[in-house]
């Protein structure tokens, strides 16, 4: 069998919400008869929307890592902390597993996610059909670990709330945190708007 | 439901069963597992870094605050107070503190904890830094190997912390005097240590004082070392007079202990915790040891007022003993009260002092017998004890031993214990005795009868006076006119005499002429004498003018 | 039921020979999860959801952590963490935190209960479809486990210069996280619709 039977080739639709297999109604705005959510053959404008989101995330990734996510203000001085310096602080305090966790979640994962999405988008745009399984698995991994990046946002939120001892020490949230939060949200949305099936649609051209 | 668009179901691939056991686990569980693992790591990491919890009890939690008060060893932070609560018995406050793991070695049996806060004492101001930083708990790590987790905190900072070179010694004294913890120890008036503690002996009869002598002064503490109270102002009134001795200002305020070694006695330095006697003053401390004492009882006739235990017994001004006690006893045979004065005599002082300071060679004969013989012979020669006033100002008395050759013969009865030493009364006592005998004689005068007779004499005297009065009245009435006439006559007579004496009376003028002549004679006689004095030759040659 | 299953990841059509209820199956081409076992009982899902609801209430009612430094003591609740951002002028970040740690779990639990309790009682609930749609959307934004990890990092960093006492809410959060994970894993979309369809029969 040269080209495997897909939902599209068989005229079948999958409702992503309730996983019901539907007959292709061939309507532009059809709804799932079971859960009444909209069904599409492919996610609409997936490539364009995802590209925009990934580009925005990539742009914001720079200030997210360079700007301080928080500033520790004591009565002596202000000590700005970027994400990386926060990792170093943890490393110095001896809890290296936590430091590795933060490093992976806050620096590696967003970068990996942006790069992976960019590579996937580029490969779809180029129409390559090589390493489809690997690319698909890469996407699923990125989609799964994407939420880990929120870790640092939560850490900063707790620190900024707790360390508010007037005149002794207070932690002030920096724009880095905002940028970082934006990167995480954008990449999360990007992963949701990306239609994985596009990776496999190139198969017939092989 | 058969869909016409699907050509053949068998052409479609079947879903793959889960390949491995691990992939059966839903992916969603990965993150919670990571969280739990990370949490376990953090908890273990914290527990490992956390250190040891200890409990220290204090009387109050003054200046301490949970999670703020630090615990420091040699001013290095080694922990923090975690919790403060009142003990169940409500007597103390229990401070729970966390000590860093690397400092847990310090937590041994003799480790001490105390609160450092600003303290102002006579010795100085300490802990000023805590005014700003807040109080902290200081630790003095002990040397014991027995680990401990529950401690009793010290209310007063220890004077000497472990590691300071020096040694601790134990002093026994009847009372603490003006010493307190922190009182200084002096060696030749140089500060050499401090009093680190004291406690009442069991039974409460004495006090044990611990002193710490810093190196290198501890090498001067030898077997012959004497400690005494150098408590500030030492004013003593004894038969020697008033003695006022002061130490440094600090020791005046705080009291102090002085020590010095007896001259001549040099022994090796002593290990720590060697017990010593703490003497009340330098004199008593530096007195040589009295290894041999003879106790005698003396019965004095006079009052024992101003004689106090400790008063010296002197032989020709040389201190040979000490009054130990005074007492009262009832002598049944005599039916009278007696006042025994118990006296310690140091026979060594009498025997041992020979010119050149050489000690007596070891006595071959029984020393007891020889000393008795000595005393016997002295008593036979008239050695008597006598109460004397040592100091007229204070009236303190002492016992004087002296040879009274005239004293009635006495003997010490060695067979009767206690040995009674013969006494004589002193001069003052004799005067007192004679005054007493006069008074006794005066007592025998029958003043009652005398006064009775005096009374009757008085009444007869009154009667006599009355009759005199009557006599006078009689004189007044009958004799007076006669007297008046007599007086008038007398007046006349006197007038005559006056007339006789008047200036122009013949008697008067005659007398005047006679006197005039007499005066002229005297004048010429004076001129003659004068001339003769200047020209004595004229007696032989006559006046130069009328040469013969 | 359709005898054909289409892979949501690669659109490959599979035949569904039998209803496998004990095993998860994968797509033959892209190895994505295709079928979830039909094992969990409706009752246990409701019990878990109720449990999660109580835990969520506790998590918000009590302080998460108490920090003591230099005699000052501060604590924060789950909502307080979100308000911390808001107080410093980062309303959007505050909203993000609030949404992902409070609103999303709450909606997830409530939507589940609103759907499952009528199913359990055998009645057809109103707005079932909307609730299930909301549930599927909201579930993606429930970041309780990530929050726990973030809290852990914050605590490790704070422990350096302050004394940290974990509050009741922190332990509740851990349990809530586990509850939500289990709940998510037993209430796959497939399973939910299985329950819905069974109740219709």
Descriptive account of the structure:
The complex is a heterotrimer of chains A (206), B (548) and C (201). Chain A contains eight helices and eight strands. Chain A is an alpha+beta fold and 206 residues long. In chain A, a hairpin with a 3-residue loop joins strand 7 and strand 8. The radius of gyration of chain A is 22 Å and the shape is elongated. The model of chain A has no long low-confidence stretch (mean pLDDT 83). By secondary structure, chain B is of the alpha+beta class. Chain B has four domains: 104 residues, no CATH class; 121 residues, no CATH class; 148 residues, no CATH class; 36 residues. Chain B has ten helices and 28 strands. Chain B has a seven-stranded mixed sheet with strand order 6-9-3-4-5-2-10, with no helix packed on it. Chain B has a seven-stranded mixed β-barrel with strand order 11-14-13-12-18-15-19. The termini of chain B are far apart. About 3% of the residues of chain B have low confidence. In chain C, a hairpin with a 2-residue loop joins strand 5 and strand 6. Helices cover 59% and strands 12% of the residues of chain C. By secondary structure, chain C is of the alpha+beta class. Chain C is built from seven helices and seven strands. Chain C has two domains: 37 residues; 163 residues, no CATH class. Chain C is elongated, with a radius of gyration of 20 Å. In chain C, 47% of the residues are buried. In chain C, helix 1 packs antiparallel against helix 3 and helix 2 runs antiparallel to helix 3. Chains A and C meet through helix 1, strand 1, helix 3, helix 4 and helix 5 of A and strand 1, strand 5, strand 6, helix 2 and helix 3 of C. Strand 1 of chain B pairs antiparallel with strand 3 of chain C.
């Amino acid at each position: 069998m040269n080209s495997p039977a897909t939902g599209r080739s068989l005229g079948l639709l999958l409702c992503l919400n309730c996983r019901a297999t539907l007959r292709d109604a061939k309507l532009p705005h059809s709804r799932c008869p079971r859960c009444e959510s909209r069904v599409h053959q492919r996610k609409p404008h997936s490539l364009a929307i995802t590209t925009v989101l990934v580009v925005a995330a990539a742009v914001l990734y720079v200030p997210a890592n360079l700007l301080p996510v928080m500033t520790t203000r004591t009565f002596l001085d202000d000590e700005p902390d970027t994400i990386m310096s926060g990792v170093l602080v943890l490393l110095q305090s001896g809890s290296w597993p936590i430091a590795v966790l933060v490093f992976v979640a806050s620096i590696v994962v967003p970068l990996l996610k942006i790069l992976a999405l960019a590579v996937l988008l580029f490969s779809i745009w180029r129409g390559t059909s090589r390493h489809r399984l690997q690319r698909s698995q890469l996407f699923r991994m990125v989609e799964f670990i994407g939420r880990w990046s929120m870790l640092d946002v939560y850490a900063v939120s707790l620190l900024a709330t707790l360390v508010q001892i007037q005149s002794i020490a207070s932690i002030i949230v920096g724009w880095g945190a905002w940028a970082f939060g934006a990167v995480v949200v954008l990449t999360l949305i990007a992963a949701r708007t990306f239609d994985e099936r596009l990776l496999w649609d190139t198969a017939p051209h092989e | 439901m058969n869909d016409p668009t699907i050509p053949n179901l068998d052409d479609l691939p079947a879903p793959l069963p889960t390949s491995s056991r691990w992939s059966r686990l839903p992916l969603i569980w990965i993150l919670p597992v990571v969280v739990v693992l990370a949490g376990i790591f953090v908890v273990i990491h914290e527990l490992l870094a956390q250190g040891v919890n200890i409990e220290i009890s204090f009387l109050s939690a003054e200046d301490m605050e949970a999670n703020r008060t630090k615990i420091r060893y040699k001013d290095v932070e080694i922990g923090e107070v975690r919790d403060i609560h009142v003990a169940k018995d409500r007597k103390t406050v229990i401070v729970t503190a966390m000590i860093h793991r690397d400092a847990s070695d310090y937590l041994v049996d003799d480790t001490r904890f105390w609160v450092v806060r600003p303290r102002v004492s006579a010795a100085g101001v300490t802990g000023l830094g805590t005014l700003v930083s807040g109080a902290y708990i200081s630790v003095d790590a002990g040397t014991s190997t027995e680990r401990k987790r529950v401690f009793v905190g010290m209310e007063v900072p220890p004077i000497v912390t472990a590691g300071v070179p020096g040694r601790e010694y134990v002093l026994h004294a009847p009372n603490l005097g003006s010493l307190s913890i922190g009182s200084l120890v002096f060696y030749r008036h140089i500060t050499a240590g401090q009093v680190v503690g004291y406690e009442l002996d069991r039974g409460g009869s004495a006090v044990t004082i611990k002193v710490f002598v810093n190196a290198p002064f501890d090498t001067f503490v030898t077997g012959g070392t004497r400690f005494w109270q150098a408590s500030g102002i030492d004013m003593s009134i004894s038969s020697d007079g008033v003695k006022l001795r002061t130490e440094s200002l600090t020791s005046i305020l705080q009291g102090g202990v002085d020590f010095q070694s007896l001259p001549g006695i040099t022994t090796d330095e002593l290990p720590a915790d060697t017990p010593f006697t703490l003497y009340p003053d330098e004199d008593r401390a530096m007195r040589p040891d009295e290894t041999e004492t003879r106790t005698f009882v003396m019965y004095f006739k006079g009052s024992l007022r101003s004689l106090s235990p400790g008063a010296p017994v002197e032989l020709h001004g040389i201190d040979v003993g000490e009054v130990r006690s005074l007492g009262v006893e009832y002598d049944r045979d005599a039916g009278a009260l007696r006042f025994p004065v118990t006296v310690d005599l140091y026979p060594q002082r009498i025997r041992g002092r020979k010119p050149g300071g050489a000690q007596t060679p070891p006595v071959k004969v029984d020393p007891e017998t020889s000393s008795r013989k000595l005393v016997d012979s002295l008593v036979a020669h008239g050695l008597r004890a006598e109460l004397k006033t040592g100091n007229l100002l204070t009236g303190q008395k002492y016992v004087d031993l002296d040879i009274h050759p005239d004293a009635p013969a006495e003997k010490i009865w060695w067979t009767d214990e206690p040995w009674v030493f013969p006494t004589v009364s002193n001069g003052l006592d004799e005067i007192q005795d004679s005054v007493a005998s006069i008074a006794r004689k005066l007592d025998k005068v029958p003043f009652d009868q005398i006064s009775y007779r005096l009374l009757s004499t008085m009444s007869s005297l009154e009667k006599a006076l009355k009759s005199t009065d009557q006599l006078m009245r009689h004189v007044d009435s009958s004799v007076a006119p006669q007297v008046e006439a007599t007086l008038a006559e007398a007046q006349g007579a006197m007038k005559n005499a006056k007339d006789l004496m008047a200036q122009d009376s013949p008697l008067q003028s005659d007398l005047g002429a006679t006197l005039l002549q007499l005066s002229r004679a005297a004048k010429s006689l004076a001129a003659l004498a004068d001339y003769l004095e200047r020209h004595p030759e004229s007696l032989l040659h006559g006046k130069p003018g009328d040469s013969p | 039921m359709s005898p054909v299953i289409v892979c949501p990841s690669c659109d490959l059509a599979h035949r569904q020979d039998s209803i496998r209820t004990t095993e998860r199956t994968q797509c033959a081409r892209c190895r994505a999860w295709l079928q979830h076992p039909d094992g969990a009982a409706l009752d246990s899902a409701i019990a878990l959801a109720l449990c999660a609801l109580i835990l969520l209430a506790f998590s918000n009612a009590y302080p998460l952590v108490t920090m003591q430094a230099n005699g000052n003591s501060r604590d924060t609740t789950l909502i307080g963490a979100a308000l911390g951002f808001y107080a410093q002028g980062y309303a959007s970040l505050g909203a993000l935190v609030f949404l992902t740690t409070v609103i999303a779990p709450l909606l997830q639990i409530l939507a589940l209960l609103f759907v499952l309790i009528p199913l359990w009682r055998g009645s057809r609930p109103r707005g079932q479809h909307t609730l299930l749609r909301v549930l599927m959307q909201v579930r993606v934004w429930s970041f309780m486990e990530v929050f726990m990890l973030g809290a852990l990092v914050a605590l490790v960093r704070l422990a350096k210069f302050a004394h940290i006492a974990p509050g009741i809410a922190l332990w509740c959060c851990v349990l809530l996280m586990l509850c939500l994970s289990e709940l998510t894993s037993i209430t796959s979309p497939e399973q939910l619709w299985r329950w819905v369809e069974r109740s219709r029969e």
